[in-house]
């Protein structure tokens, strides 16, 4: 592989918790005077954030309902964003103990397994997500196809990876992550001109995507080089 960074993505954050870590202004659990409005506030934080505050909100929600699979997989996604993929995997697995066919949790677990380097496990989890119960939150089945494409590329199953990313883009042409990941696989195949086009499309859709921007710079540089140059022949 030529070594561009892929953007493995989790799904919408949906709720969280194992160790309660209350922050200033965030109650440990609702009392008799803290009604549905407080629970909704925790839910909104858990849904919208990917930082330690999200973990605290999800932990509070788990105190209210420890058997909500959405909370567990959102917690896992937040932990993954913070770089704690081992703890994230535990949370996704807990969600799947509660709801074994939950599509979003299976796709989120796919992303986490990819981050942990278990790419065959990731592919298997993404396939299970595609065949699961169809609950995707704010995401869609394209999330599973795109995440699977990333792990297929790491397994050097490049044509399958291209097919997976293109399926994601057929489902959602505005999915910037999938354009970036398609470009990364094209780059791995030394199809640099096509990679440039894919990275550019990712940036058109999300101008703040620094990963796609850096990948675009590298792909443009490589596209200008003769195919038999030393730079091209020494990266495998």
UniProtKB/TrEMBL annotation:
Keyword presence, Repeat: yes
Instruction: Give the keywords, sorted.
Output: Repeat, TPR repeat
Q: Where are the TPR repeats?
A: 69-102, 142-175, 176-209
Q: Where is the composition biased (Low complexity)?
A: 227-236
Q: Which domain of life is it from?
A: Bacteria
Cross-referenced SMART domains:
TPR
Q: One Pfam family of this protein, by short name?
A: TPR_1
* Positions of the UniProt region annotated as Disordered: 216-236
UniProt xrefs under PANTHER family? PTHR44858:SF17, TETRATRICOPEPTIDE REPEAT PROTEIN 6
Q: What is this protein identified as?
A: Tetratricopeptide repeat protein
Native organism taxonomy: Bacteria, Bacillati, Cyanobacteriota, Cyanophyceae, Oscillatoriophycideae
């Amino acid at each position: 592989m030529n070594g561009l960074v892929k953007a493995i993505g989790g799904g919408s954050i949906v709720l969280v918790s194992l160790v309660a870590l209350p922050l200033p202004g965030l109650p440990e659990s609702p009392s008799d005077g803290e009604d549905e409005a407080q629970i909704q506030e925790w839910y909104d934080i858990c849904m919208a954030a990917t930082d330690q505050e999200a973990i605290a909100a999800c932990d509070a929600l788990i105190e209210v309902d420890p058997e909500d699979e959405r909370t567990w997989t959102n917690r896992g996604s937040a932990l993954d964003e913070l770089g704690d993929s081992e703890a994230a995997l535990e949370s996704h697995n807990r969600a799947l103990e509660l709801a074994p066919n939950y599509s979003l949790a299976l796709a989120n677990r796919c992303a986490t397994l990819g981050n942990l380097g278990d790419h065959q496990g990731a592919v298997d989890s993404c396939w299970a997500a595609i065949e699961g119960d169809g609950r995707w939150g704010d995401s869609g089945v394209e999330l599973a196809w795109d995440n699977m494409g990333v792990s297929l590329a790491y397994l050097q199953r490049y044509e399958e990876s291209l097919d997976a990313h293109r399926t994601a883009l057929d489902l959602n042409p505005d999915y910037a992550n999938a354009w970036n990941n398609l470009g990364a696989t094209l780059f791995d195949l030394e199809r640099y001109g096509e990679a440039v086009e894919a990275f550019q499309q990712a940036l058109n859709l999300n101008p703040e995507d620094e990963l796609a921007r850096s990948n675009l710079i590298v792909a443009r540089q490589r596209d200008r080089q003769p195919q038999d140059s030393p730079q091209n022949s020494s990266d495998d």
